[in-house]
Amino acid sequence: MDLTVTTLAERPELARAMDEMPNTWPEFILEDPIGWANFPRIVKEFPEYVLVATDPDGAVVARAYSVPFALEAPGRGRLPEGGWDRLLLWAFSDLRVGRTPDTVGAIEITVAKGWLGHGISGLMVAAMRDNAGRLGFQELVAPVRPNAKHTDAAAPMEDYARRVREEDGLPYDPWLRVHVRAGGVIEAVAPVSMTVSGSLERWRAWTGLPFDTEGAVEVPGALVPVHCSLAHGYAVYVEPNVWVRHRA
């Protein structure tokens, strides 16, 4: 597969094509307020940490976003339970106060719809890890969103993350398996990695579901059930992710 991976700093003209790249993210996941406020800043503030893969014709086929942050800053020292949200908050807080980063955190790897199933995700994990090393870091950490967990939303993430295949002992989940094959080590679950809340009307618009049942509602693409409160007119989704460490 003849793909070229570069940083956005090297190819700033690809920013729009990266943003418009066809993807499979469920609509509701884009409504996390911390992500909504901070994710668009990455291309402007950290272009050296953004990777883009193009085919021989120059079309964007995959993208990868990461951010530098200070894991060993006072009050930190371990990967946060707040996962993806906390990683963004730490990165931009560190940037604001001028704190020197010591770790790179993976924010997103997405492969274009027409290129799924070609091993590109593994290529992008390796490229992100290598880019972190090129920038002088020794470690890449990732709050991984297991991509098959939505098929077993009721299972606790702690149990799901530790499932392995009998034939080779690798993780049951395909996305976790990509990370482990790339040298990553599963460390812990981030139980409150991302939070999306909204009125029942908004959830109906995002999902096409009636949201007329009190309690847990299974939503396509959601890793755990969404909590629906009919009496109060809202629903909340709290997504767990899985922390994986890579040596850069």
How many domains is the backbone divided into?
A: 1
What is the C-alpha radius of gyration, as a whole number of Å?
18 Å
| Class by SSE composition | alpha+beta
Q: Examine the coordinates and then state which fold CATH places here, giving the name of the CATH topology.
A: Aminopeptidase
CATH class: Alpha Beta
Give me the strand/helix succession. Answer: EHHHEEHEHEHHEHEEE
Shape: globular
Number of strand segments: 9
Largest sheet: 9 strands, mixed
What would your notes on this structure say?
- The chain has helices at 15-20, 33-38, 42-45, 83-97, 120-134, 157-161, 174-181, 200-207; strands at 4-7, 50-54, 60-69, 103-111, 139-144, 185-199, 215-217, 226-229, 234-247.
- The chain is of the alpha+beta class and 248 residues long.
- The chain has a single domain, classed as Gcn5-related N-acetyltransferase (GNAT) (Aminopeptidase), CATH 3.40.630.
- Strands 1, 2, 3, 4, 5, 6, 7, 8 and 9 form a 9-stranded mixed beta sheet that branches.
- Helix 5 links the parallel strand 4 and strand 5 (139-144).
